[in-house]
Specification:
Radius of gyration: 21 Å
Order of helices and strands: EHHEEEHEHEEEHEEHEEEHHEHEEH
Low-confidence stretches: 209-213
Mean pLDDT: 90
Number of helices: 10
Helix content: 25-40%
Strand content: 25-35%
Largest sheet: 7 strands, mixed
Structural class: alpha+beta
Strand order of the largest sheet: 1-2-3-4-5-7-6
């Protein structure tokens, strides 16, 4: 491939949709759970979205579509996601993925349109990690069992920030003790510090009794209705923050005293908890029935994005068996500063890292997660019967 002319990179158009679907099938097979490569209507919407950019690469000699990648943004947000990186099997090892990624970042991030771009990267091989790393993305953590393709796969979280953004983070003074190793790991990986952070001295919450009966929840899967109700409950962005996720399911007890909004992807077997009404604390004591209901609906992986400054919310998730696997510094802009967020997750399926390919910069996060999972789910010596 090195003897061929440089590929022609251009913005994707509706005329490319048929070829793009063939490309994603050639790369991922029939199990790709993302509309970007499978749903013509959603693909056309992303191409027309003024807050996003989709680029394709074509062979200069034949005109064949050889690669694709996009940065997906949204109105009112200065964070976006790098997604849909695909290179046709016959054109790999030619630097196409890196060329597409750099072209996207040059137009969307380096121009000041965004504060950061993140990517969830497959770990079945080390190639995707190397691609984003060569383009200035740095590891933020591991998302175990995050998606079901042909089988359960763990993803790595990477991000690239605009210059100066990491220097404007709002400081945090206290976090649950279980998060301190993750902060140290992220600090070493990103060259940032948490010198003033100490373990919170709050009361230790009792461990949940998973053998005890849990409250029955109704799960409403009516996306249009859920979106309308969500907008009624949260007319502004003050009560929630989950980039590029719109709720499509609602969970509530019979008396309706709280409502949990989530995004459920059945094809990928995962779910993101977005927020709760009247406030997240209202549902904090009910995370066990919430995650069980979602597991029954096919979500083998449930995650939550929690501000690092919200010690009480973090503690509630940790008590219910969630483990923090990633830290996204300077994720949300607020005035003149940026807030850090932790990504916590819980899997109802067995986590197996034996087939995971991990590049050296990501390895400390994997080690950190393994230790945190063991501390959360394995009995201590005093709890083991003699």
């Amino acid at each position: 491939m090195s003897t061929l002319a440089a590929p022609v990179i251009a913005q994707a158009t509706r005329a490319d949709i048929a070829e793009l679907r063939q490309l994603y099938y050639a790369v991922y097979g029939p199990h790709y759970p993302v509309a970007l490569g499978t749903d013509p209507a959603e693909m056309a919407l992303l191409m027309a979205d003024p807050h996003s950019l989709w680029l394709v690469a074509r062979c200069a000699a034949t005109g064949a579509l050889t690669g694709s990648a996009a940065i997906h943004g949204e109105a009112g947000s200065r964070i976006a996601r790098l997604e849909g990186i695909a290179v046709h099997p016959e054109y790999r090892s030619a630097g196409l993925a890196a060329a597409l990624t750099e072209a996207l970042c040059a137009r969307m991030l380096d121009t000041g349109r965004l504060d950061s771009v993140y990517a969830t990267v497959r770990t079945v091989g080390s190639g995707p990690q190397r691609v984003v790393a060569r383009n200035g993305f740095r590891p933020l953590g591991i998302l175990p069992n995050a998606v079901d393709l042909s089988s359960r796969e763990s993803l790595a979280l990477y991000a690239r920030h605009s210059p100066g953004v990491l220097d404007r983070r709002v400081p945090v003074t206290e976090v649950p003790a279980a998060l301190l190793p993750l902060l140290r790991t992220a600090g070493d990986a990103l060259g940032i510090g948490y010198p003033e952070v100490r373990a919170a001295a709050g009361r230790r919450r009792p461990a949940p009794d998973r053998q005890r009966g849990v409250e029955q929840l109704e799960m409403i899967e009516a996306p249009a209705f859920v979106r309308r109700r969500f907008r009624e409950r949260f007319p502004g962005a003050e009560g929630w923050f989950y980039p590029l996720h719109t709720p499509n399911v609602l969970l509530t007890p019979e008396d309706g005293r709280f409502e949990v909004y989530a995004y459920l992807n059945r094809a990928g077997g995962y779910c993101s908890l977005l927020t709760a009404h009247p406030d997240p604390a209202a549902a904090a004591a009910h995370l066990e029935p919430v995650t069980r209901a979602l597991a029954r609906a096919g979500a083998g992986y449930v995650e939550a994005l929690v501000p690092l400054a919200h010690e009480e919310a973090l503690s509630a998730f940790l008590t219910q068996g969630f483990v923090a696997g990633a830290l996204y510094p300077a994720m949300r802009a607020d005035g003149d500063g940026f807030h850090d967020y932790a990504v916590l997750s819980r899997s109802s399926e067995r986590i197996d890292f034996r087939g995971v390919a991990v590049e050296p910069p990501l390895q400390p996060y994997l080690d950190c997660y393994a230790s945190a999972w063991a501390a959360a789910h394995l009995p201590t010596p005093s709890e083991v019967a003699p």
